[in-house]
Amino acid sequence: LVHRLLAARAAALTQRATALVAAPVVVATALVRDGRVLAAQRSRPAALAGRWELPGGRVEPGESEADAVVRECREELGTIVRPDGRLGTDLPIEAGVLRVHRATPVPGAPEPRPLEHRDVRWVEPHELADLDWVDADRAVLGDLAAELLSQ
Ligand code: DCM
User: Fold this and answer.
1) How far away, in angstroms, is 56 Cα from ligand 1 center?
2) What is the pLDDT of residues 49-97, one digit of tens each?
3) Cβ(59) to ligand 1 under 6 A?
4) Cβ of residue 27 lying under 6 Å from some atom of ligand 1
5) DSSP 72-137
6) N or C: which end of the chain has fewer CB within 10 A?
7) Mutate to test the pocket of ligand 1, among 26, 41, 77 (most ligand atoms within 8 A of CB)
8) What radius of gyration do the chain's Cα atoms show?
């Protein structure tokens, strides 16, 4: 009986570890320029429409997180960014785990436009708390404000 209990416990732990390792990664981009960060207003799904986020999306198989940041900003904002390291800690979300990356615009890149969002705006540190952020992103606002104010 003890053996069977231990085996069941081991199987459960293995399953949980596999789920953690395999959790899909979603990257979000803290695009910073002149002490402001770019916030994007979601247009979908209905439950999130109108709320603000750091633009990003799922990392594709075989893709690095930095490459995903560049791709998502090109697809969603029509601009070119240079990733510049992580911001804050891993955030658990329904879809997996959210990782925020800092980025700066590449010189001469087009101004970000809301190609998939309802709106985009450059936000100053003192305005961060006023936006209706999606839940996960709200958790990095402290780190984000510190980053903007350190420039
Ligand atoms: N997501 C999030 N915060 C972000 C970007 C994405 O919480 N800054 C979540 C919303 C979705 C999932 O990640 O559940 C995938 O994002 P999308 O629907 O934009 O592909």
Assistant:
1) 7
2) 999 999 999 999 999 999 999 999 999 999 999 999 999 999 999 999 9
3) no
4) no
5) HHHHHHS--EEEEEEEEEEEEETTEEEEEEEEEEPTTPPPP--SSSSEEEEE-GGGGGGS-B-HHH
6) N
7) 26
8) 18
pTM of the full structure: 0.88
Distance CA 51, CA 40 (A): 8
Q: Provide the token pair at 102.
A: 């800092």
Q: Return phi, psi of residue 79, to 5°.
A: -135, 170
Instruction: Report how far ligand 1's centroid is from the alpha carbon of 57 (Å).
Output: 6
**Ligand 1 atom nearest residue 91's Cα:** 7
- 3-state class (DSSP) for residue 149: helix
The Å distance, Cα 65 to ligand 1 centre, comes to: 14
What values do phi and psi take at 107, rounded to 5? -55, 130
